Amino acid sequence: MEITLQVNGKARTVDVDPRISLLDLLRERLGLIGAKKGCDHGQCGACTVLLDGRRALSCLALAVAVEGRAVTTVEGLASGDDLHPLQAAFIEHDAFQCGYCTPGQLCSAAGMLDEPGPSAVTEDLRTDPGLTPDEIRERMSGNLCRCGAYVNIVSAISEVAR
């Protein structure tokens, strides 16, 4: 079936099998290989993209279900040659080692910065906790890094959140 979606600000119309995941559409049909296929079960976060500005696991979303919506991949975070502040902070803080999880971490962090409200570690639900290191760790807990670069990832996100 034919679907149209906005990918990194551009309308893309493609014929797809109704069973193809958004991740496979992005990687195999549109050549956007930033989002990674880590577990293909929604457990690692390597495939995280922004769907209408909110974090989404692209391996769990059917491409047909996102017709007409805006998808932002790690390739779409930068503005031309200007890196997104998170991308620059990840470089500055050495927030990656092998880099496999980095695209998902970046998209997840970008979405997280715009998400209001408390998390599971918020002590007082009546106040805005801000993005403390504990809040960042909790909110990013769906994105795994096998290299263990978490300390630097939290530092990079903290810098941008300030």
Automatic annotation (TrEMBL):
Involved pathway(s): Alkaloid degradation; nicotine degradation
Coiled-coil regions listed: none
InterPro entries xref list: 2Fe-2S-bd, 2Fe-2S-bd_dom_sf, 2Fe-2S_ferredoxin-like_sf, 2Fe-2S_ferredoxin-type, 2Fe2S_fd_BS, Aldehyde_Oxdr_Iron-Sulfur, Beta-grasp_dom_sf
Domain of life, source organism: Bacteria
Keywords: 2Fe-2S, Iron, Iron-sulfur, Metal-binding, Oxidoreductase
Domain 2Fe-2S ferredoxin-type: 1-77
GO molecular function annotation: 2 iron, 2 sulfur cluster binding; metal ion binding; oxidoreductase activity, acting on the aldehyde or oxo group of donors
PANTHER family found in the cross-reference section: OXIDOREDUCTASE WITH IRON-SULFUR SUBUNIT (PTHR45331:SF2), OXIDOREDUCTASE, IRON-SULPHUR BINDING SUBUNIT-RELATED-RELATED (PTHR45331)
Name recorded for this polypeptide: Xanthine dehydrogenase YagT iron-sulfur-binding subunit
Annotated source species: Nonomuraea maritima
Organism phylogeny: Bacteria, Bacillati, Actinomycetota, Actinomycetes, Streptosporangiales
